[in-house]
Inverse folding.
């Protein structure tokens, strides 16, 4: 049997260039995944926060108009007050309301089923594409009508049209979402 001289074998210290490139590639892949996941998670959180503030503001506006026959005369400037709208959404200036997406909010009366001024229309501007579906899904059970970028997503007495929602939300980087709440008799 032939004996080997182990002293002639060179021991490699550290990582070679191939191993180093593999490690860097794995690290970059993990960082990219975390980055993508954080953007998606951020959209969900903003959608949830936006839905909560929209519904709270609509409830406060309904309380102000409780006992009146309609929403006639309702305007953004008229309800942009700390007693109705959370202070952090009034930072845009007198008579303006902003939302969590950085867009403007408008409030106006609307007509449903032929009854003028019987609907409170609350429009959230600049709802981000990533957050749009989550936002609409979060408010859908609490409002009577919804349209996204001018497309009816939920008609009065109906449910959310999921294919129309997906198409409308994907139509631009940000869209306007209008929620309607009919005045109870």
């Amino acid at each position: 049997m032939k004996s080997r001289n182990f002293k002639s074998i060179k021991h490699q210290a550290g990582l070679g260039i191939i191993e180093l490139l593999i490690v860097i590639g794995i690290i970059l892949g993990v960082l990219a995944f975390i980055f993508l996941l954080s953007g998606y998670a951020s959209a969900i959180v903003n959608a949830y926060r936006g839905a909560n503030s929209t519904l709270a503001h609509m409830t406060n506006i309904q309380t102000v108009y409780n006992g009146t026959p309609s929403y006639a005369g309702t305007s953004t400037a008229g309800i942009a007050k700390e007693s109705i709208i959370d202070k952090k959404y009034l930072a845009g200036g007198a008579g303006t309301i902003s939302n969590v997406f950085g867009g403007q909010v408008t409030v106006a009366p609307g007509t449903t089923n032929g009854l003028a001024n019987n609907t409170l229309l609350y429009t959230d501007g600049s709802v981000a594409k990533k957050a749009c579906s989550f936002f609409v899904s979060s408010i859908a059970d609490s409002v009577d009508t919804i349209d996204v970028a001018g497309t009816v997503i939920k008609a009065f007495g109906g449910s959310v049209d999921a294919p129309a929602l997906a198409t409308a939300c994907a139509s631009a980087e940000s869209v306007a979402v209008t929620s309607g709440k009919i005045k109870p008799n």
Observations:
- DSSP finds four helices and six strands in the chain.
- Residues 58 and 122 are 7 Å apart (CA to CA).
- The radius of gyration is 27 Å.
